Amino acid sequence: MEYTYAVPLQPGDTIAVVAPSSTLAGADVTKGLVFLRSLGYELKIGKSVSAFDGYLAGPDRLRAADINDAFADDTVKAIVCLRGGYGATRILPLLDYDLIAAHPKLFVGFSDITALHTAFLQRCGFCPIHGTMVMSLGRDASEYTKEQFAYGLQHPYEARELPLPPDCSPKTLVPGAVTGPLVGGNMMLLSVLMGTPYAIDPPAGAILCLEEVGEDAYALDRMLCQFEEAGLIDRVRAIAFGEFYHCGPEEKAPYEWTVKEVLRAYAKKWGKPAVMDLPFGHGADNAWLPLGQRAGLEARLDGVRFTLL
């Protein structure tokens, strides 16, 4: 499938900030907005950003309307999500996919936003961005993440080898070299969408990117087993594991498997090129990954090379 690429930003362009999922997080949001303005962009803040309804950033219809309106607004050149949390799956039936497909724009987020990425890629045919969000920019984003984000806004689909932050050394689980479009994101979101009209349906030969936060090894095992039994792994060419932030255990113990042992076991079982420890996910380092864009993955025993094509 051929995907549409959104137009890169220029200095002075307007970015819409929307909250598809959870409500705001105080000072972190203010700091994140200050950072966006420091890059030279104008901001249009959606109503959802200051709304709340329990743990949601306002009612479902409000959050969906913010997204629809941002895509329809010709003055808005990109959309950056406030944060993840929970709520994106609830608004999937309320989005105007024909309108969104007619106005492709840079759409940036991760975590719970995986639900929207998957829908936009499959239903609207344009390439969204798995990347940092406003709350993360104001809280704990590393300089690497901020540089990736700032550069990505103006060079969103540039062919280049993925830069790595200091002390990042991705490791090969199963050697091999492949090319294919990037798909995936947060494991929990991909899991809960299975069996719904919004389930991931990757194009042939895709590279599946997976990351997670705050889950025990057995829960990761459960999701990976589900991906396998649902046929997802059969439909992809390679697996790229990112960060498994606050997932444990990390140390070997009786009657336990570590997170990395679980990843290694499934990768070996599947026999497809696979790597782990790429810099994307919920930690301080979060790369700019254009989903749908073709990439090259070289998984060698002496190192990993990940290239956007």
TrEMBL record:
Which keywords, in A-to-Z order, does the entry hold? Carboxypeptidase, Hydrolase, Protease, Serine protease
Under CDD domains, the record lists: Peptidase_S66 (cd07025)
What InterPro entries does its record include?
A: Carboxypeptidase_A_C_sf (IPR027461), Class_I_gatase-like (IPR029062), LdcA_N (IPR027478), Peptidase_S66_N (IPR040449), Peptidase_S66C (IPR040921), S66_fam (IPR003507)
User: Could you tell me which residue ranges the LD-carboxypeptidase N-terminal domain spans?
Assistant: 15-131
Instruction: Locate the active site.
Output: 111, 211, 282
Q: Name one GO molecular function term.
A: serine-type peptidase activity
A Pfam family matched in the record: Peptidase_S66
Domain called LD-carboxypeptidase C-terminal: residue spans:
179-296
GO BP annotations, alphabetical order:
proteolysis
Q: What family does the entry list?
A: Belongs to the peptidase S66 family.
Q: What protein is this chain from?
A: LD-carboxypeptidase
* Organism of provenance: Megasphaera elsdenii DSM 20460
Tell me the organism's taxonomic lineage. Answer: Bacteria, Bacillati, Bacillota, Negativicutes, Veillonellales
